[in-house]
Amino acid sequence: MSRVGKLPIDLPPGVAVEIRENEVTVKGPKGELCRSFDPKMSIALEGGALVVSTGSRDGLGALHGLTRSLLANMVDGVSKGYEKLLEVVGVGYRAQKVGEKLVLQVGFTHPVEVSPASGISFSVEGTNRIKVAGIDKEAVGEAAAKIRAIRRCDSYKGKGVKYVGETLRLKAGKAGRAAAKKK
Question: How far apart are CA 53 and CA 43, in angstroms?
């Protein structure tokens, strides 16, 4: 049995849960999320908390913990929401919001437009900080990863799009070439 799966999920005020067989709908002040779970998992609402249990001990510990974590993420998403912060680094590199779209100028000959998926919103702080927000943790992470993949930071100058707080290991470059020119 999973140690994570055993923990109950406390529901904050304003969050309602509806359970139909293996489909769970969570409604809160930020929105509504719905997800289907494996029929081997038993999800119940007991005393203002969600409880996940398994009918047997047939190696379902990982699935038990996963189901509980996904439910906890749904509850947190509809009550607080999720956000990822990205930073654009480089001379002439910038981001701006045009309507709902995000427009990036990151060293290509053309600006790159990114449209948000449903339930995702972009905001730009200054010219180099991007905030990706939404209620679905998976969708927020995927949208941030797609933006970062447009121009990942290179390992020599550190220019590109990175997560805020991400540390880069920069390479030294070609020291042998500079020494050869001196001769």
Answer: 7
Q: Which CATH architecture has domain 82-163?
A: Alpha-Beta Complex (3.90)
Q: Give Cβ neighbours of residue 56 (< 8 Å, ≥ 6 apart).
A: none
Q: What share of the chain is helix, strand, coil (3-state, %, to 5)?
A: 25, 35, 40
40-60 in b/e form (b: 16+ CB < 10 A) is: ebebeeeeeebbbebeeeeeb
Q: Does domain 3-79 have CATH number 3.10.20.70?
A: no
The structure tokens listed for 15 are: 């969050």
The whole-angstrom separation of Cα 36 and Cα 76 is 17
Token output for 3: 């140690």
Give the pLDDT confidence of 13-23 residue by residue, as tens digits. 999 999 998 89
Encode pLDDT of 51-98 as tens digits: 988 877 677 778 889 999 999 999 999 999 999 999 999 999 999 999
Asked, colleague to colleague, whether 3-79 and 82-163 share their fold, the answer is yes
